[in-house]
Amino acid sequence: MHSTLRQKILFKHCDPAGIVFYPRYFEMINDAVEAMFADVLDWPFEDLHQTGAVPTASFQVDFKAPSRHGDVLDLNLTIKAIGGASLRLQIVAQSGEEVRFVADQVLVCIDQNGRPLRWPDAIRAKIDKEIGDPL
Amino acid sequence: MHSTLRQKILFKHCDPAGIVFYPRYFEMINDAVEAMFADVLDWPFEDLHQTGAVPTASFQVDFKAPSRHGDVLDLNLTIKAIGGASLRLQIVAQSGEEVRFVADQVLVCIDQNGRPLRWPDAIRAKIDKEIGDPL
Amino acid sequence: MHSTLRQKILFKHCDPAGIVFYPRYFEMINDAVEAMFADVLDWPFEDLHQTGAVPTASFQVDFKAPSRHGDVLDLNLTIKAIGGASLRLQIVAQSGEEVRFVADQVLVCIDQNGRPLRWPDAIRAKIDKEIGDPL
Amino acid sequence: MHSTLRQKILFKHCDPAGIVFYPRYFEMINDAVEAMFADVLDWPFEDLHQTGAVPTASFQVDFKAPSRHGDVLDLNLTIKAIGGASLRLQIVAQSGEEVRFVADQVLVCIDQNGRPLRWPDAIRAKIDKEIGDPL
């Protein structure tokens, strides 16, 4: 994997059934991707969004086991592939050894007019290096 | 389709890029499913959660076009199939004729201990009728 | 009062204690104000935010009784006073006759550079009429 | 102050005006209180909610300056006073030296039936010590 976001399951994440409400998982996924852009690609979202955006084109998510208030969750993110303007990521969320969900996400780099934009060369070089050199 | 939730895109749904932040779409999907259980199956979530829950097992979502503040979105829900304890749904979100996203969702009926529970006969009968008689 | 937003308490609003999580009340307050701007002032947020914003300067909120999943809540909004760039509102949220919370909110009209902006005359005229003619 | 929660302003916190949407501030306030209960009082919310809850009775919040994507915010929490079942807190949120908001919050300790509950002696002793010994 290429980066990990550790997130304790907090009161705000949980529903009346006492487990994480799935839209909160999608907020955590966004946080994990935002952290990867800042820490691995050195292109923080607050800079990136000055000139464009990276909206999501698709998700495939399998929920394997529920998460409860107080659990410590690791969102392990792996960059799987880069296209011209697309990026394929996988996020595996675990508490200890137990997998809670696996999410496959495709992002697209766009400009301020919403048109697909080829990833900048400096970013592409970092992503190529990450894919070729998994931790 | 079997039910529709109409949702105006509000300030709270939108991100700094001026479009709907995808975790908010998942809240809308949950609202659409909650409305279907109340209006079509006559089993409102506030009753259902007294004795069990209907967590999501998986999502496949394709985002086709962004939604903007002020758009009126229709989340059109179709019941696709029922299993012993599972339910397969499709939600197609449109603003006018433009499709914004298509979500395929699998739910599982569980008891208070988290074990899969066969859908009650009265619910199963209503779902069977819906599947056999699409609007 | 000058406008009412009716909101059923949904699964997404509730916490593990089975009652509304207070940040969700603040989302509802924002929805009630957004609805008042659209329906009473005829200045929907999606238009207003093209040229400015109406951030909140202060809140005083008293929570009187909890709200539960399935309750129907009416957020009754009254315009209390208008200043040069400020607006004082009160939102009383009730389920039937029972008051759930009372919120006093002060908004400020600002331009795109964040500077206070005198309310446009057309808006001021509508607000003056509302204040002078409570329903 | 008695505890601090550091929170980078993330994409998910911001609205189309590019600043923090105020309901997200209230989620942060809840996180800061949850962290204080875990770290200072050694009574994490995941344990506390097994036998009761600590709902909010009131808020007075003044927003002094907006927060933007990428800002680092410190939520500095001070315990101001303890009553039989109540607790008065103040949260001052700053980015560097600039105060962004000041929130005065009153919590109430309740049992599983929603009745006010005197703070347990062990918690009261820790709070008394904190109030008498500000950092």
Describe the structure.
Four copies of one chain form a homotetramer. Chain A is 27% helix and 37% strand. Chain A is α+β, with helices and mostly antiparallel strands. Chain A has a single domain, classed as Roll (Thiol Ester Dehydrase, Chain A). In chain A, a hairpin with a 2-residue loop joins strand 5 and strand 6. Chain A is elongated and about 45 Å long. Chain A starts with a strand and ends with a helix. The mean pLDDT of chain A is 94. Chains in contact: A-B, A-C, A-D, B-C, B-D, C-D. Chains C and D meet through helix 1 and strand 3 of C and helix 1 and strand 3 of D. Strand 3 of chain A pairs antiparallel with strand 3 of chain B, so a sheet runs across the interface.
Q: Which structural category do the helix and sheet elements of chain A fall into? A: alpha+beta
Strand ordering within the main sheet of chain A: 1-4-5-6-3
The largest sheet of chain A is: 5 strands, antiparallel
Query: Quick one: CATH superfamily of chain A?
Result: Hotdog Thioesterase
The SSE string of chain A, one letter per element, is EHHEEEEEEH
Helix amount of chain A, in percent?
25-40%
Shape, principal axes of CA atoms of chain A: elongated
Throw out a few tags for this protein.
homotetramer; 135 residues; alpha+beta; Thiol Ester Dehydrase, Chain A; 5-stranded antiparallel sheet
Give a nutshell description of this structure.
With 135 residues, the first copy, chain A, is of the alpha+beta class.
